[in-house]
Design brief:
about 220 residues, mainly alpha, three-stranded mixed sheet, 7 helices, 3 strands
Length: about 220
């Protein structure tokens, strides 16, 4: 049973990563009819929404695209910054979706930002407490580790509506502004949906692991 469990928590994220890489590779080769680069897509959507204070920058890495709410910067990986593909347009629009959320004070985005310090502590220290608690048979220490881990899991769950909402905003923008046309709408959705799978997979695996640890804790309590 444990072997099956570990296979699942290893394969689900791997499968999600393969899906997003496959979709990105495929549609990064499909040119958008608007002929806009990712940078131009981002700038166009930002300007149309009055976000003139948000800048667009190139960043290193592959699929390292993100929006930084602290500095009001949309950062696009080189291929998407310069690329004129459907994939580049989809990802650029998605990151601008986060900037629009920031502008409109989207509640889940604010909640996620508030959870960042707690989630960081949970991610960094939970396993130390959990391992010591399990090895030393200290159920109270294990419980404390589980509580820290639960905070990190909550952060992942709050991330889901933030990411899905950003993708919905992205689709609305690229369609209404004529950035994508006809069949490109379906292709853009495939890129965005594949990317969303990585967040869903991460949340699912985190919940499974949390449940497993809770069961271990309850077992220790019964033994006591």
């Amino acid at each position: 049973m444990y072997i099956l469990y570990f296979i699942i928590i290893l394969l689900v994220p791997l499968w999600a990563q393969m899906r997003v890489k496959s979709a990105y590779k495929k549609y990064s080769k499909v040119a958008a009819t608007s002929h806009l680069s990712g940078r131009e897509v981002a700038r166009k959507i930002l300007d149309e929404n009055g976000l003139y204070n948000v800048t667009v920058e190139e960043t290193r890495g592959v699929l390292s695209d993100h929006y930084d709410p602290r500095t009001k910067v949309v950062r696009l990986s080189s291929d998407n910054y310069h690329g004129h593909s459907v994939a580049a347009a989809a990802i650029a629009a998605h990151e601008v979706g986060h900037a629009i959320q920031d502008q409109q004070d989207y509640s889940f985005l604010r909640f996620r930002h508030a959870l960042v310090p707690v989630a960081n502590i949970g991610s960094n220290f939970s396993w130390i407490l959990i391992l010591i608690g399990m090895l030393a048979g200290l159920s109270n220490l294990l419980l404390l580790g589980i509580l820290f881990m639960a905070a990190a899991v909550l952060f992942q769950f709050v991330t889901l509506p933030v990411e899905f909402n950003a993708s919905n905003r992205a689709m609305d923008q690229v369609v209404s502004l004529g950035i994508i046309r006809n069949d490109e709408e379906r292709e853009t959705k495939k890129v965005l949906n594949a990317a969303a799978l990585t967040y869903v997979a991460a949340a699912a695996v985190a919940v499974l692991e949390l449940i497993r640890l809770i069961l271990i804790y309850t077992g220790m309590q019964r033994d006591d």
